[in-house]
Amino acid sequence: MTAARHRLEAQRARNDTRDWVVKRRERTRQLIELGGLVAKAGLVELTDDDRAVLFGVMIDAAATLKGEQRDQARTLWRRRGRRAFEQLQNE
């Protein structure tokens, strides 16, 4: 395949507005952003990129959010997250 043809196909793919393509693109973007949050939090380095540990941390967080302390945990985590975002912006 020539480079020009490859560029043309790539452009068509970017401009594809079929519903399932748009939804897939949105989901892909969401997953990339969530992965970025895991990296920004330092969890990749702190766990030596151990996916089982990362998944376990998320399972614990989900269990907390299902429990009686849900509202308190969300409030605390939201405050911490906002402060961390502000610090990142100020760096």
Automatic annotation (TrEMBL):
Q: What Pfam families does the entry give?
A: TraD
The highest taxon in the source lineage is: Bacteria
| Name under which the protein is recorded | Conjugal transfer protein TraD
What organism does the record attribute this protein to? Sphingomonas pokkalii
